[in-house]
Amino acid sequence: MALISYDDTDAAAFAASRELPRSGLDRWRHAVGQHLRRRAGTTVLDLGAGTGAWAGAFTDWFGVRVVAVEPAAAMRSHAAHRPLLAGDAAALPLRDSTMDAAWLSTMIHHVPDLDAAARELRRVLRPGAPVLIRSPFPGRHHRIALFHWFPEAVRVLRRYPDLARVRSAFAAAGFPVSSVEPVAQTTAASLAELAERLDRRAHTPLQLITDEEYADGLARLRAAADAASGPVVDHLDLLVLR
Ligand SMILES: C[S@@+](CC[C@H](N)C(=O)[O-])C[C@H]1O[C@@H](n2cnc3c(N)ncnc32)[C@H](O)[C@@H]1O
From the CA of 12, how far away is ligand 1's center (Å)? Predict the structure, then answer.
């Protein structure tokens, strides 16, 4: 079972509040660019592409072809990127050895059968092509603002697969080498902007805490926002498997 399923309300909330301005993603652009071999015809799979923001950014940043695959019809309906295919991590609508990299952004916790997904990625990726996973991992949340203001959301994060679990699933499927690095992003220009833009429906960890926990966290965040200045910089991990 996925942790949540994305209906139209969630998808609209995601499109409105989770798509980050590209100006805050320079470090991600640099970090991902280090791992992509770019030549004529390079094709990147964006798995669990959601509303397609990363697929569009990679197309513009790297000049590669990006094939977006997304199971939720509601998310696909908010995505402008093409090609955009319906499909699931465990059954990719792609031919063997056709992809030069796979990008999995904040989706690994939704995949019910990680081992099957790793095998399926091994099937569609060319030999040596990397799997690039952007995610918060259990125990590595200390530089992500959301978990500071909503500490109960750490309880939900503990249900996500941890680094060891993901590494072992991918090693068993034929991706024996891995590296991990935290990558900074500007999530909001200020704490006030973060508070203003926050939409619980767009964040799995916030959906799965209690209403009271959410209300308390929001009150803390709003009170702090009145006094704070400066951007909100978060660090999610980039896990690379080959
Ligand atoms: C938090 S969203 C992230 C969307 C996008 N990758 C991004 O970072 O903007 C998680 C996405 O994973 C998708 N997803 C859930 N289960 C999946 C599965 N089994 N295979 C592929 N994608 C899945 C969801 O439908 C949703 O669009």
Answer: 14
